[in-house]
UniProtKB/TrEMBL annotation, chain B:
Family annotation (InterPro entries): MetI-like (IPR000515), MetI-like_sf (IPR035906)
Membrane-crossing residue ranges in chain numbering: 7-25, 56-82, 94-114, 126-147, 188-210, 231-251
Domain ABC transmembrane type-1: 56-251
Keyword annotations from UniProtKB, A to Z: Cell inner membrane, Cell membrane, Membrane, Transmembrane, Transmembrane helix, Transport
Protein's UniProt name: ABC transporter permease
Membrane topology: Multi-pass membrane protein
Cellular localisation: Cell inner membrane; Cell membrane
Family as reported in the entry's similarity comment: Belongs to the binding-protein-dependent transport system permease family.
A Pfam family that the UniProt record links to this protein: BPD_transp_1
Length: 279, 263
């Protein structure tokens, strides 16, 4: 009998106290009545229009920012890995991606207000130089589109950071072999490159989805509580029980864990698949 | 290949435009506080605000405490798992990835319910207790980055041989960790530390819900009430993030090479 496991006890105790137990408290609480008995009523209560619409808009923003983040991230990563750009451009782009993917939260909201807000730089330039009033055209930073545009500022760099190693793993030989067999560029991408890349692309998508689904600070600083997305609803609930039902608050949080859990599960499963090719 | 390169430049140029515009816009906006002329007034107001100084100092101290506790927790654990419990690695990987799966707002919600004044460990009952709780929360947030950085650093050194060599010279576990292992993974620890600093300094959700006077909630409050100062704050916050990432780049030049490359 070895006692080597005792060495990780401090870590396990820490994880138990400040990660596992608090999460379990939420999960258990969402299946409890006020008196402590088991119930599914809290989960069922989630299916009321106001909460469903909060989940729905959260999911839509996360889908849109993950899809666009993945797409643009892929294009930019492709451009400097395979697109024939000079080598010096790679390192500053990756460093900047590291900075921007961590530049989320309150300051990011300020930056976009100062740029795309009603008196922002881009808004004024478009209005005064080109005669285009984007707010007159229905654009609003405090909306689905505005929040998605803002989230892309950290989503695209994150996608670049994850996709670049996958593109680095694409071997020249594959392309040459395909060309010798008579494949066109399009056929190479459709038959060879894309089937190899899709697990890491889809995995990136899942990670980006979870990343924006759990984000609170940017949305809160940008919209206050005018846009009812799940994290903001939960924030208001924790502060002042706006749902007037503490256990519904637990269920709301539990729903968030389920959504991000599924997204991350897909990411981890697909990463294991994509690593088979990248040795 | 020529058309490829044109497209490449186009994508990169678009990306640069998208990322540069908000930075330029913010900087320009932060200079506009005085009518009809650019000035640094907004910066002067922000930097001179005593609440800026207090909350900023609070978050800096919080970040330093988080880094200290995180290093004390992560380095011995990662070392021990590499040395004695290699079959635990998938489990540890899973545990340290969990903070990315469970949103911080859910974790802090759990803290509030679990450690309130009527519980067995009433941490939120006092200011000091809440500070400690917030610090532990930040250690949880930093865990994925910290553990990964240190584990990668440990991979580059021969842990077993170093340990045996130190033991045969009579070193105990504390000496091995502090004087043999830590210096060897110093670069990884520093990278993790700078990233932790960048995350903690502007963190909003946990500090706001635990009602601590941190920099993140201060920024949010200023944003809700002022026009030009928030832009100045955003520029300052961006420079801090940039500084942390630049320091990571600088220290990683000193990283030891993986063993197979040292011939």
């Amino acid at each position: 009998m070895s006692f080597a496991w005792l060495g990780v006890m401090p870590f396990l105790l820490f994880a138990l106290l400040f990660l596992i137990l608090p999460t379990m408290k939420i999960v258990v609480g969402s299946f409890q009545t006020n008196e402590g008995g088991f119930t599914l009523a809290n989960i069922a209560n989630l299916f009321q229009p106001s909460i469903l619409s909060a989940y729905w808009i959260s999911i839509r923003i996360s889908l849109a920012s993950a899809l666009l983040g993945c797409g643009f991230g892929f294009l930019v990563a492709w451009a400097f890995v395979l697109g024939g750009l000079p080598g010096w451009i790679r390192s500053p782009l990756l460093t900047f991606s590291g900075v921007a993917s961590n530049f989320a939260g309150v300051p990011l909201a300020f930056a976009f207000l100062a740029t795309f807000g009603r008196l922002g730089l881009v808004t004024l330039i478009l209005r005064d130089w080109f005669g285009i009033n984007i707010y007159g055209l229905g654009f609003n930073l405090l909306s689905f589109g505005g929040l998605t545009l803002t989230y892309l500022f950290f989503q695209i760099p994150l996608a670049i950071l994850i996709i670049t190693p996958a593109l680095d793993g694409m071997r020249r030989e594959w392309r040459e072999a395909a060309a010798i067999l008579g494949a066109s560029g399009f056929q190479y991408w459709r038959i060879v490159a894309f089937p190899i890349l899709w697990p890491s692309l889809l995995g990136t998508f899942a990670l980006l989805f979870a990343n924006s689904f759990g984000a609170v600070a940017t949305a809160y600083a940008l919209t206050g509580s005018s846009l009812s997305i799940v994290p903001i609803l939960l924030f208001a609930q924790i502060r002042g029980d706006v749902l007037q039902d503490p256990h519904l608050g637990y269920a709301l949080a539990f729903g968030m864990i389920v959504v991000t859990g599924i997204a991350n599960g897909i990411y981890i499963w697909l990463r294991a698949r994509s690593e088979r090719w990248i040795k | 290949m020529r058309t490829n390169r044109i497209w490449s430049w186009l994508f990169v140029a678009l990306a640069i435009a998208y990322f540069a515009l908000p930075l330029i816009g913010t900087f320009e906006f932060s200079l506009k506080m005085r009518r009809a002329a650019y000035s640094l007034d907004a910066y002067a107001v922000v930097l001179g605000d005593p609440r800026f100084q207090q909350t900023f100092m609070y978050s800096v101290l919080m970040a330093l405490a988080t880094i200290a506790v995180g290093v004390l927790l992560v380095v011995p654990t990662a070392y021990w798992v590499r040395l004695k419990l290699p079959h635990w690695r998938p489990f540890m990987e899973f545990m340290t990835l969990l903070p990315l799966v469970i949103p911080p707002i859910v974790i802090v919600f759990g803290y509030i319910r679990l450690y309130n004044t009527s519980s067995w460990l009433p941490l939120t009952g006092s200011a000091m207790g809440t500070n400690v709780l917030l610090m532990f929360g930040y250690v949880v947030l930093a865990l994925p980055y910290m553990y990964r950085a240190v584990d990668t650093g440990l991979r580059a050194i021969d842990v077993a041989t170093l340990t045996e060599a130190a033991q045969s010279l009579g070193a105990g576990w504390v000496t091995i960790l502090a004087r043999v292992i830590l210096p060897n993974v110093a670069v990884a620890v520093l990278s993790g530390a700078f990233l932790t600093f960048a995350i903690v300094i502007g963190e909003f959700v946990m500090a706001a819900l635990l009602s601590r006077p941190a920099f993140g909630p201060y920024m949010q409050l200023l944003g809700a009430n002022r026009a030009y100062e928030p832009a100045a704050l955003a520029v300052i916050a961006f420079l801090i993030t940039w500084g942390c990432m630049a320091l990571i780049q600088v220290v990683s030049r000193f990283a030891p090479k993986p063993p197979e490359q040292l011939h």
